[in-house]
């Protein structure tokens, strides 16, 4: 039996959950944004699904592998568990129009933001109440992907993610 729909917090990864010096794919290079772990745990406690939706063109460009992405996401999950948080599912898009590897080359990848594919997949996989859900990203394409998926979207300009989302939690 499928549980009742509930709101989802869709989060871009680089620049929202972690600092973004470019193509982060190793735990030793990963740095949490202030308040990111606490925000995830707070939305978990409030009964929201929490999903990561991240473009990972570094895979298609040959900088790192999908196994590297999955290993980093596993480590993020372990780190979040230390503060009582969890990501319900990670969605990533390794495709890019200019990918070095043909398997990842696509003129307009449906999952690559600003396309809404990753959000739509999450909503197909999980019982999501889209009308009460929220997408948070640091780029206009993240906001566009959320809006195209029928989800309200906010642009995170940096700082403390928990402070940025505190009002959203109160509203929920």
Q: Can you characterise this structure?
A:
This protein is of the alpha/beta class. It has one domain: HAD superfamily/HAD-like (Rossmann fold, 3-Layer(aba) Sandwich), CATH 3.40.50. It has six helices and five strands, in the order βαβααβαβαβα. The protein has a five-stranded parallel beta sheet. The longest helix is centred in the middle third of the chain and has 16 residues, at 66-81. The protein is globular, with a radius of gyration of 15 Å. The model has no long low-confidence stretch (mean pLDDT 97).
Write the layout of secondary structure elements.
Elements lengths: L7 E4 L24 H10 L3 E7 L1 H4 L5 H16 L7 E5 L23 H9 L8 E4 L2 H9 L3 E4 L5 H11 L1
Parallel strand pairs: 1-2, 1-4, 2-3, 4-5
Helix pairs in contact: 1-6
